Amino acid sequence: MVKLRPKRHGGKQRITYRIIAIDARSRREGKAIKEVGFHDPRKEQTQLNVSVITSLLERGAQATETVRDILKRAKVPGQVKIEL
Question: Which Gene Ontology molecular-function terms are recorded (predicted)?
Fold first, then answer.
């Protein structure tokens, strides 16, 4: 099963996250199938590739709770008809 989850990136106290599509059995820092976004909690910046995210979700990928919250804050479910 494919999941959308955050991958930690950056140094100590300068953490950013890349939103990736990855096999559910892989470790957190494992090789990603596809990178679909970026989230910086310090600057509250989010950059998402909405078309790729929706196509992955339509094909059966599942978003983790953290990624679901990021998508809701970015108002992705309102732009495209998907349920999170």
Answer: structural constituent of ribosome
How do residues 58-67 score in pLDDT, each as one tens digit?
888 999 999 9
Q: Delimit the domains of the chain by residue range.
A: 2-78
Sign of CA dihedral 64, 56, 26, 35: negative
Range 2-78 has CATH code 1.10.10.10: no
- Model confidence at 81, pLDDT cuts 50, 70, 90, reads low
- Strands (E) in 1-84, as ranges, are 2-9, 16-23, 34-40, 45-48, 62-63
| Average pLDDT over every residue of 24-46 | 89
CA–CA dist 78, 55 (Å, integer): 15
Is 70 exceeded by the pLDDT of residue 80? no
